[in-house]
Amino acid sequence: MIDEARLIAQAARGDRDAFEQLVRSRQQRVYWTAYQVVGNEDDARDIAQQVFIRLWRVLPRYRGGRRFDAWLRRITMNLAIDAYRRRQARPDAAPLPPRPSSLPSVAGTGPAEGLDRREVQAIFLRLARRLSPQQRAVFVLKEMNGLDSDEIAAALEITPSTVRNHLHQARKILRRGLAALYPEYLPARSRGGGAGGDA
C-alpha cells in the first residue's frame, strides 16, 4: 500500500495516476459533504468535480505539514457554500424536498427509531433551509462529519467561538423547525414542554 504523503507529493508534481488515486479515495466524502450543504444531487456532483479541478490546480502549493483532509474540506465547504448561496438567491430553482409521505410511528427508545437514512435526509434538507450558509456548514461538519470546533474553525477560517455560536444557533433553529413540522420526532419532554425550551 502506497504511503499517502508520497502519493500527495507525486500528485503535486503532476503525476496524474497519483492524483486519480487521491480522487478515488476522497470522491465519496467530498460528494457527501457537498450534498449535506446544498441538498441537491446534481449540485453536489458539480461541486465535487469543481473541488477536484481546483485541487489539481492548487496542489503544487500544498505544504506537507498541513493536514491534507482539512485542506480539501476547506475547498469543498467554500465551493458548497458559494453554490448554496447562489441557489438561495434563486428560490424558484430550489424547491423544498417533500415531506416524507410515510412517517413511521415513534414508539420505543428514541424519536429517530424506525427512520431510514433517506427520511432523515429529507427532514434535514427541509429544515436546513432555515439556516444561514455558515450555520449550515458548521452543523454539517460537526454533526455529520464529527469534527470538533477547532477543526471546523480551521476548515472555515473562522474562530472556534464563532463555530460554537453558529452551532448553537443552528441547533436552536432546527429544533424549532422540528417542533413545528415534525413534532412526533421530538423527545416526549420537548413535545410537552411548550415553546419555551431552547436549552
SSE layout and pairing:
Elements: H1 4-12, H2 16-38, H3 41-58, H4 68-89, H5 117-128, H6 133-144, H7 149-156, H8 160-181, H9 188-192
Molecular structure report:
By secondary structure, this protein is mainly alpha-helical. It is built from nine helices and no strands.
Q: What value does the Rg take, in angstroms? A: 19 Å
Main sheet specs: none
Uncertain residue segments = 91-114, 193-199
Give the percentage of residues in beta strands.
under 5%
Distance between the termini: 48 Å
Q: What keywords describe this structure?
A:
disordered C terminus, mainly alpha, 199 residues, elongated
Summarize the structure.
The chain is 66% helix and 0% strand. With 199 residues, it is mainly α.
